[in-house]
Write a structure and sequence with these properties.
The chain is globular and about 45 Å long. It contains five helices and 14 strands. Strands 1, 2, 9, 10, 11, 12, 13 and 14 form an eight-stranded antiparallel beta sheet that branches. A six-stranded antiparallel barrel has the order 3-4-5-8-7-6. By secondary structure, the protein is of the alpha+beta class.
Length: 274
């Protein structure tokens, strides 16, 4: 786990730039508690920004990825034996040190905790660009599916998401508010963002690739944040994105950046059978 934390912190310093570039602060993956930048530590309560509390039955595909009993990232149930999360959540980690909590509104209690037998991280993932930010988790035992634990549908390979499509992002990440609970699952609705506009917005940081999908309001205010990484972005009942990175959280003109699930659909199928 120490190696994992070192790798994540190293990613903060190298992300989205050429070898000779200077990357401004604030652009980094959204991994887990304890790794937010110092400017955010004092007002962090680890939740979705600008969202609202929900019950796990409202997002039964959501899981909490945990290390030694602590929530580090989110993820999505794609079958009774497989979870999809972000590669930067598993990079350098050992399957034996990770668990998933399913079927609970609280990340620290309730539901069922299941061990992980294998991590299948995308071979093309790189912490420098946070591209191909996908990781599959094979569970040691099947999830008992029901109202609080359900499989989320996946898009087809290269299936598009129309600009302005309303998407739901959920998780237990940073709310940037001391008045919001740090214990319950939260959600926010954000529209998908034009790819070219997003690429221009992040041009200083290397732009976005075809494996990325952007969502958020131009005025900011609603977004995923640290601790939400790996969690689901859902549109029209399908898992279209995996929480990946962004400039701070909920900043104007900088939408959240998600790994585009449709770009990895064949990879998911060939590695998990799903």
């Amino acid at each position: 786990m120490i190696q994992f934390l070192v790798l994540v912190c190293a990613a903060f310093a190298t992300v989205l730039g050429n070898d000779d570039s200077i990357v401004p602060s604030g652009v980094f993956p959204r991994p887990h508690y304890g790794t937010v930048q110092s400017s955010e530590k004092e007002d962090s309560n680890h939740r979705i920004v600008g969202g609202f509390e929900i019950d796990i039955a409202d997002a039964p595909h959501q899981i909490s990825l945990q290390s030694r009993g602590s929530h580090i990232c989110g993820g999505s149930i794609i079958s009774s034996k497989w979870v999809l999360t972000a590669a930067h959540c598993t990079d350098g980690a050992s399957a034996s040190n990770l668990r998933v909590r399913v079927g609970s509104t609280k990340h620290a209690s309730g539901g069922t905790v299941i061990a992980i037998s294998r991590i299948v991280q995308h071979a093309n993932y790189t912490s420098r660009t946070i591209d191909y930010d996908f990781s599959l988790l094979q569970l040691k035992k099947a999830i008992k599916l029901g109202n609080a634990s359900r499989v989320i549908k996946l898009p087809e390979q290269n299936e598009s998401v129309a600009d302005g499509t309303l998407c739901e992002v959920t998780g237990w990440g940073n709310t940037q508010s001391i008045n919001e609970s740090r214990h319950s699952l939260r959600a926010a609705y954000v529209p998908s963002f034009n790819q070219q506009d997003c690429n221009r917005a992040y041009g200083l940081y290397g732009g976005v690739t075809d494996r990325m999908l952007c969502a958020g309001f131009r005025e900011g205010g609603k977004d995923a944040c640290q601790g939400d990484s790996g969690g689901p972005l859902v549109a029209n009942g399908k898992l279209v994105g995996v929480v990946s990175w962004g400039l701070g959280c909920a900043q104007p003109n900088y939408p959240g950046v998600y790994s585009r699930v449709a770009a990895a659909r064949e990879w998911i199928r060939s590695n998990s059978g799903v």
